[in-house]
Amino acid sequence: MFLHRLLAARAAAGDPIRVGVIGAGKFGTMFLAQARRTPGLHVMAIADLSLPRARAALERCGWPAEQYAAPGFAEARAGGATHLTEDAAALIAADGIDVVVEATGHPAAGIRHALAAFAHGRHVAMVNVEADVLAGPLLARRAAAAGVAYSLAYGDQPALIAEMVEWARATGFRVVCAGKGTKYLPAYHASTPDTVWGHYGLTPEDAAAGGMNPQMFNSFLDGTKSAIEMAAVANATGLTPQAHGLSFPPCGVDDLPRVLRPAAAGGSLAHAGTVEVVSSLERDGRPVFRDLRWGVYAVFEAPDDYVARCFREYGLVTDPSGRYAAMYKPYHLIGLELGVTVAMAGLRGEATGCATGFRGDVVATAKRDLAEGEVLDGEGGYRVYGRLMPAADSLALGGLPLGLAHGVRLQRPIAAGAPVRWSDVAVDEAVEAVRVRREMEAAFGAPPARAAAE
Prior knowledge:
CATH architecture of the largest domain: 3-Layer(aba) Sandwich
Structural class: alpha/beta
Strand content: 15-25%
Number of strands: 15
CATH superfamily of the largest domain: NAD(P)-binding Rossmann-like Domain
CATH class of the largest domain: Alpha Beta
Oligomer: single chain
Helix content: 25-40%
Number of domains: 3
């Protein structure tokens, strides 16, 4: 990609890519740790709802205090320093910003910030995959109309999976399945912020000492984050979710091509050209041998006997037929790798993964029997988890997007394991995120058939 060479040239010319970061949480902080070491990048401004939290994050990742002492945007741009602000809108509008990193994790905020960035001609690195799944296809269309890049965040698993799918297709392979690994047991769907630390082998005191957010970590555990990320992959790659969503089969890296092939060929998939998340735990809780808990993969198919022979000759692990093989990356470094997206957008106006259609959706699903009048508390909370569905099925159901299942009141009881529908909650149709989502549903409707996507 020659990104480093191009960044070095921008640095030498005194014309770095100027970046505004919204959200100084874990992902944003990890990016900041590397951004100050990357020639050709200038973090001109950081916006966070809490300036003390932002300063603490910068101190934690090694920034010298004088680097973020700029009193305003103009001083930051002229002096190569960084301005801190609580005003995300002002950051987006600030003269000189090239790329906006949206790292709030809040879907409604992500949509608002992306639309403002497009209006000001800024590229967007959308770390906020919750916002992307809620309205990414429409946001991508708006970005294209504005002549800017809208991108998944490199370092996060969806962008890395999309890159692997692109590699396979660019070399002529049909992608059978792509996805990631995680720690999963069926009981985790009912996990709440009160029970999450036991599943991680931590005490609440240990977690608090590490500054760990129980609702966020619970979303990783209860299947919600996996559903969100696989919906983003489906929308970016054309792979289509299975009708039942995710199965989380236990699987290590050596078994990827055996397990993740169509059922007709002896595997676990309902169809080829799909997404799946593999578990690092057997169903009885034993660890999977050579698990892929932190990584990503793509399974692809040999088109003929000659290519299958090449698989053998070059040592690829295949299924027993020799027809299916896999590539995988065992780790992802989230924000530490985000500079790739920023560079691709700022240098070339290109994305590291971007929604091209509405193929996957995440529907709020009851963790337990819910009573009329209860208020939903969103991702990783006490009441619902996110279930991956084909977008056509979600639309036919009238399923409530997980990204809007926060702060809304139930108008009728919902049984445990049942999806929540738009009609089950009192929704304010005037809210921007609701309006944008409704517009996306109307604009994209039912996605094309799976065969067309392949």
